[in-house]
Every structure is written in C-alpha cells, then in structure tokens.
Amino acid sequence: MAAQIGDPRIHAELDRIIGNAKSGDTVVRRAAADELKRCVASQAAVLPQERLAPFQKVLNGKLQELFRGSFLKGRVGQAAKAQQQPAAAVLHPSGADANRIAGLVCITALIDVDFIDPNLKITQFANYVSKALTTENCQ
Q1: DSSP-based three-state secondary structure for 47
Q2: pLDDT, tens digit, 9 for 90 and up, residues 2-33
Q3: Residue among 88, 79, 123, 98 nearest 23 (CA)
Q4: What is the distance between the alpha carbons of residues 128 and 100, in angstroms, rounded to a whole number?
Q5: How far apart are CA 96 and CA 40, in angstroms?
Q6: What pLDDT digit, counting tens, does each position of 60-97 carry?
Q7: At what angle do helices 49-67 and 118-133 cross, to 10 degrees?
Q8: 8 A C-beta contact, residue 113 and residue 44
Q9: What are the residues whose beta carbons fall under 8 Å from the beta carbon of 50, sequence distance 6 or more?
C-alpha cells in the first residue's frame, strides 16, 4: 500500500531520493533517478486520482526547488578562472549546478512514468529544461 501524501514518510522518501540525485557521483545520481521513477510509478499505480493530485503537487514543488537560483551565477566573465579550477570541481558539481543537474536527471527519469496527462507532462518537462538553461547573468 502506498503512503499517503500527508504521511511524513513519503516526504522523507522523496527528500532522500532527491538528495541522492544531487550527488556528484554519476552512478549515485542515476540510481536516484531510477528510484524516483519506481517510487512515482508505484504511487501512481495505487493511489486514486484524488490522492494522486496532491502527491504530484508535492513532487512538482520539490523538483521546482532544484531549478531555483542562478545556474551560472558568478561564472560569467570567469573563463580564465575555469582553466585553473581543479578537475574534481568540474566533474563533481555543487550548489546550484548540482541542483539543476539533479532536476534534469529526475525529470528525464519521470518522462516515461504514466502519472500525469501526457500533454501536461511535456509542457512541464519543457518548462523545467528552460529553467535549467536560463540564467539572469546572460545578456
């Protein structure tokens, strides 16, 4: 039986999975996305529509949080410094970069899950990608 959306266990589970998706380790990130896909699919399979809508709202809010902030904040005009950056910093993103990458990995995993109207899903996917690729620093 699926946990109800008011159940703190489902919030904790989503937070744990999304936290893992923020990992700098690609394998951990991919595993988190797969786990999120299974979690959402199982909720969609057992929850009646009136309880699935609140779950979707919570999930969308958590995904939107990943895309808030500036993706490239403080990086414009720092191309010279990028060459001096340690390789680990480039391979293992942190902060806003890690959040946006986690968001993209999560929504990519969810695109195949049948839990929302397909037309709405495509629109949401496009909006998330747009948010991930925009920055207030670009002219």
Answers
A1: coil
A2: 555 556 788 899 999 999 999 888 999 999 99
A3: 98
A4: 9
A5: 24
A6: 888 888 887 543 343 333 333 444 444 444 445 556 77
A7: 10
A8: yes
A9: none
